[in-house]
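Entry for the shared binder. Reason: the reviewer on the internal report wants the predicted structure included alongside the sequence.
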Amino acid sequence: MENRFCLQMVSCGDGCCGGGSSATENVYSTEETVCGKWIDGKTIYRKVIVGKLAKDSVGSTAFANVSDLAIDCLVNLYGNTKENNNVVQLTLQTSYNLPDGINGAINMYYDNINGIIYYCFLNNNGSYSGSVANVILEYTKK
């Protein structure tokens, strides 16, 4: 007996591009978008924050104030930046190591009390100073 397949069309309503369907899970935007459900059933939102990195930071440096997002649970915090001469790209929260040492390292965190994303930055050769960083937040709301 040969296999038969059936296709069924399902209405997405007006939520296909923002209503939490699987089509939205890979949308990255500077506008807040719905990207899924958290383990407690709350909606997960995603927003990309674009900013510039400073020179080396000895302590914590504020990247963005996102207190207006009313974050309850920060599910994920990640992003990317590229060297000013566009040779190397880094994913944020990781280190880029060469045999002769670390050229750049970033560690980011969110402060629940004041709603600010901070980062600590090591930039030995200066090639990331002032580079553009795209930080992706995925979170539930209060």
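Summary line for the report: The longest strand covers residues 71-82.
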